[in-house]
Amino acid sequence: MNSAENSAITTYSQEDIQQILNLALTRKNTTGDLEFSRQQLVEIADEMDIDLNTLQAAELDWAKSQTSSQQKAEFDLYRHQQFQKGLGRFAITNTFLVGINIVAMGGTGFLWSVAVLGFWGMGLALNGWNVYQLKGEEYDRKFQNWNSKRKIRKTIHGTIAKFLPQ
Length: 166
Hints:
Blueprint lengths: L2 H6 L5 H15 L9 H10 L4 H54 L1 H25 L5 H27 L3
Helix pairs in contact: 4-5
């Protein structure tokens, strides 16, 4: 872009400014770990005519979203671990039962066990489908339920820890 084209654009939308600044910061620091102090954040906000109250409110909103994102990542990890446990139990149980049926009933036992355990496998597959769905009302409801139980457990453990000798 030459200087004539560059001077033709005199106004930018808020989204344009955010994108340009993000690109500039990325180019300025190629290692990816550029960090700013809170004082620098306050100075940048001041230069952009953002008052301190607005900045503090934005910081609080950002901190809440970071906490929520971290909690959802913990919830997703928990769900994946629970699913993997169920998958392991399914594989062990199926192997054992199919083996017993083959020994006890011959070839017909194998077909019977595959049919019966197939229903368990379908349930496991549906559970897996739900575990890897990371959006929607059901996901939000399960996350809220898990988070509430987690908070209660933390409160109980904290209360008990107060009464235990250290």
